[in-house]
Amino acid sequence: MRTDFPAGFPSGLAVGRPPACAPRPGHNGAFRCLIASGFLGFVALTASAGAALAAGDDPLSAIDWLSQSVSTPGTARSTGTAKPVEPPVASDGALPVMVSSTSLDIPSPDSVGLISPSVSGLPRNLWGAGLTDEIARAVIRDRMESLPALRQLFLTMLLAEADAPIDAGNKGHLLQARIDKLLLIGGLEQAAALIDIAGDNTPALFRRAFDIAILTGREDKACERMQKAPGLAPTLPARVFCLARSGDWDAAALTLTSADALGDVDKGQTALLSRFLDPDLFEADTVPPPPSPVTPLDWKLYEAIGETIPTGRLPIAFAYAETGPQSGWKAQIEAAERLTRAGTIAPNVLLGLYTERDPAASGGVWDRVDAFQIFDAAMQSGDPARIAAALPPVWSRMQEAELEVPFASLYGPALAGFDLPPDAARIAFRIGLLSPQFETIARAHKPLDETETFLAGLALGDITDLRAPDTMGRAIAPAFLAPELSDEARMLLEGMRLGEAILLAIEDIQRGVDGNVTGVTRGLSLLRKVKLENVARRTALELMILERRG
């Protein structure tokens, strides 16, 4: 499987898979050992989660499907039941005045990142004079429907090295908000890398590292970490799971039996863990229904007893667990499509899955696989006639799945090198404009009509004297001819709050996609004013080419 990345694409890599775990010694063979999952690496968050960050509490309510694998002060050790988090209250609706002090000798965890300013194109003072809780609320807002270029920009912001906000202290609240957002958009590998740099020495970060490990097939490593750090206070389900994973089945069974007798674990969890420890004993019993919400630990336990819960309707982070060979080919493809669409894995992962074998049936995902394979074979042949015949069907399938930009990253530059008939050439030109080489392709292309002339102008950043072909084009044009900042954007920039201004631009453009086209003008204008020219051009092209309009 090819897994190389387009330049600057902040996505996950496919990595080697550890061998399957060994069955329990002396067991009769019916036990299904846990299979390590595939690649290393949408619940909308509310403002109360950001307030919880400001209050200094671990915002469990921010991600309701996290396994409560460790207990924290104020929680029940055996069940992991979280203490309710209350947001701070201020009179007159104003934010409370908070005074904080930061040790100059200890770097703030909030400054941790994976991408240096020289690579990200974002300044080190990205968050400037912003306040941690306000930035955290802005970070965790829902942006899953953003255009691909904006999703990539947002992902880059989450991963960028940047100075901590002025009131950050050393608690790492913004870091945790960034990690939580990565989990919510399926960026497990990226979240794991941030935790590796920052260290998982706090219960809050270890809880997230534990779930990432489960969903990426590294639960043994997480269990070893837990055993070496008793201060993390593992909850009973996590303790039983890890004891079993280490081969200490007797201790796991004794721990569960004792907790059940004392009423320290609910009956549903007891039934599931008991079946996990000895499936033969409960073979004739009805499998307990999955809880709501399903946690990664729940998912892994059900997989272990042979009752895998499909991930299609679970949060996108769970899709990672079905990208490996232990899942069926269809499940792998559908999981990879979700993650590719979100921009958190490389398009080459999907390419490898699409071309792995012949389609098993027809309809749905199989029609995409079939069209993709026919087109890929045509490209390999280098025959313009075959390419022209295969291009419209595969492009239609990619549009249906909203995978146009990943497809363009794979094939756009190569397509630009073929002399195709007009209908296919129009599609190929648009695909090329959605690829990272959009500027080179636009410069070499001879436009076939007024729309292509305008698209080429956007790609080159100059639409002087060009006529916008439609309503969206007329909303885009002012941002490239005479960009003006909104009052809110100007206030943020004058207040040295660049990161929040960029997040505002992303939201303005999304509102434009949903129908308020003035948001497109405002958002693109801001991106260009803050020197994010490449992002502005790619976004404008996606607005014109992709069918994402509300």
Summarize the structure.
51% of the residues lie in helices and 0% in strands.
Rg (CA only): 25 Å
Distance between the termini: 36 Å
- Counted by DSSP, the helix tally is 25
Number of strands: 0
| SSE class | mainly alpha
Which ranges are low-confidence, i.e. pLDDT below 50, for 5 or more consecutive residues? 1-61, 73-104
- Helix content range of the residues, please? 40-55%
Overall pLDDT metric: 83
The portion of residues forming beta strands comes to: under 5%
Oligomer: single chain
The shape, in one word, is flat
Largest sheet: none
- Note the run of SSEs as H and E: HHHHHHHHHHHHHHHHHHHHHHHHH
Task: Please characterize this protein's 3D structure.
It contains 25 helices and no strands. The chain has 550 residues and is mostly helical. Among the domains are: 162 residues, no CATH class; 63 residues, no CATH class; 75 residues, no CATH class. The protein is flat, with a radius of gyration of 25 Å. The chain starts with 46 loop residues before the first helix and ends in a 5-residue tail after the last helix. The N terminus is likely disordered.
List keywords for this structure.
mainly alpha, flat, 25 helices, 550 residues, single chain
